[in-house]
Design a protein that fits this description.
Blueprint (H helix, E strand, L loop, with lengths): L17 E2 L10 E2 L3 H5 L1 H4 L7 E4 L3 E5 L8 E6 L3 E8 L2 E6 L5 E5 L3 E3 L1
Antiparallel strand pairs: 1-2, 3-6, 3-9, 4-5, 6-7, 7-8
Protein name: SH3b domain-containing protein
InterPro entries: SH3-like_bac-type
Length: 113
């Protein structure tokens, strides 16, 4: 399987506009960042490329893209070792140590070893 460069943002990301509080009410600022990116900003600081991860679920689908709409290419078992390649929102691009396959997993189901 060839390495595929990660995309910057999910195609299905929905942009939301939220008003922030400012000291001068005549000047309001707005954010058009997808909610998930704002919400997960601290999460992104927890992982770095080449970190070793392990599966924290009985089974976990390794997908060929960052979302549940992408095809599962391998079923991973609990404690399977993964090497972090890149972060795409709440999805992590990883290399499976045992099989050598590359794909994406949701960050909720893995932990740093």
């Amino acid at each position: 399987m060839r390495y595929k460069a990660p995309r910057r943002a999910s195609e299905k990301a929905v942009k939301t506009v939220s008003k922030s509080t400012v000291s001068n009410p005549s000047k309001s600022s707005f954010s058009t960042q997808p909610k998930e990116r704002i919400k997960n900003k601290s999460f992104m600081n927890n992982y770095r490329s080449n970190d070793m991860l392990a599966v924290d679920s009985d089974i976990l689908n390794l997908r060929n893209g960052p979302g549940i709409e992408y095809e599962a290419i391998e079923i991973l078992k609990k404690h399977a070792l993964l090497k972090l390649i890149a972060i795409d929102g709440e999805w992590l691009q990883v290399k499976v140590i045992e099989s050598g396959n590359y794909g994406y997993v949701n960050a909720k189901y893995v932990y740093k070893t």
